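Bench log, entry 3. Co-assembly request; chain sequences pasted below exactly as received.
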Amino acid sequence: MASWLLFAVFSCVLLLPEPAFGITRHYTLDIKMHNVTRLCHTKSLVSVNGKFPGPKIIAREGDQLLIKVVNHVPNNISLHWHGIRQLRSGWADGPAYITQCPIQTGQSYVYNYTIVGQRGTLWYHAHISWLRATVYGPLIILPKHGVPYPFPKPHKEVPMVFGEWFNADTEAIIRQATLTGGGPNVSDAYTINGLPGPLYNCSAKDTFRLRVKPGKTYLLRIINAALNDELFFSIANHTVTVVEADAIYVKPFETDTILIAPGQTTNVLLKTKPSYPSASFFMTARPYVTGQGTFDNSTVAGILEYEQPKHAKTSIKNLQLFTPVLPALNDTNFATKFSNKLRSLNSKKFPANVPQKVDRKFFFTVGLGTNPCNHKNNQTCQGPTNTTMFAASISNISFTLPTKALLQSHYSGKSNGVYSSNFPWNPIVPFNYTGTPPNNTMVSTGTNLMVLRYNTSVELVMQDTSILGAESHPLHLHGFNFFVVGQGFGNFDPNKDPKNFNLVDPIERNTVGVPSGGWAAIRFLADNPGVWFMHCHLEVHTSWGLRMAWLVLDGDKPDQKLLPPPADLPKC
Ligand code: C2O
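Structure output for the full assembly:
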């Protein structure tokens, strides 16, 4: 500690350039069972270090993280560092059966990676089955020493993590849904930092309170860790300034409401009132829903409380409490306007390096579908009909997880029987994607990868389908940030739509909401060798197969190759 302090002092005095190296930070995350009570229901849940949500992990750009994860629970486990690029360190990415076999009971694994060229709010979560329902926490990357934010320095920084609380065991919920082919039960509450707040029964004591001083600026690091719901969020009688999304600085803009999909993060500046307002303010979140299925339509509330002056007349309990007005649950108009406001900062220090030329263009459909009911003895299923089970797919392939991890299979040259390298660049059977759905809604199944040569510049259009209803899908790509160069409704038109692409300052992120009944076009440079999962971050859709993986091959130079696997990499 003392030595870097000295160094920091020296670099300030002598105006030395920033050191290119960071420090190594060690963390131990013990995955343990832990009793938690919410809404008067107590359950034993899988937790990190006996905390719910999990502890904050903090690092600086350039640091190396060595995170030892020890599995003390009966479940298999793996952790993902959502949004971390993992340059050449794919072994530490975390999705089970994609980049690693799960960590088995009693075993441990050290996730080893260096944070290169990233700073901002990210998060970590379990990446196996539905365990991320309770295993998640903030992952905060500060800028390098002496590098300021491109906005006024906040008085305080506060992580606000949205989650979903289920009274029942989430592993049982997804097990049941997989058996019956039906939609899984929905959550009982939304939470802010694990707390549902006073709008639920038996919950007033579990309320997140943000205590502020007047006339100060607070940086709220907002993370949507909910399993299955995009969320609107607003603070009564306050506006916020959005300054960052998915750990990328954006052109600041003011808004009274934000929309955040599962997997996404949004940093906002909250400027408090200039003087003590003699009131408190609800901060509420509830879902944005476009699909047909049942959903949890409840509202989580936290309270923004101003520190009271000494001679305040009313006690804080008796203050008037204002409530924000959130958009309607299906307000796609708001969603579109909000996503159009998000632009990369694109400054000298933080340029938007949008690929201007494209080597390969892909067109994938994303949406729901069905599988035939697989029950014996004439038992019926609970899918959209009693002879079908819900499924979801990319380009009509519902992705099956292998029983060995893809990255090891690739690295050791033993891909036979594990995956095939023939993901279609275009749907095999084109149809009117957003028109009247086809009669046949069946998906095919497989473990198909799209192979890219190192440094391929990719353009990918993701097209929602109206099969079983159009729906917004937050698509997340591991291993890369991408630029969202275009979005629209209806079917993507390859002749017209590219003319309107923004190749100057599009938002750069790791998770994009493909508009309901529309499409999103992204570009990225495949400069990171490895196997990279891409999936809908609505966990139910991932479970149903809305997922696939990219295989990016090594480049020729030594620094363009995937590093060798660590010795403690879990075995299947
Ligand atoms: Cu946030 Cu593949 O996950």
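Residues 486 and 501 are 5 Å apart (CA to CA). Residues 1-18 have pLDDT under 50 and may be disordered.
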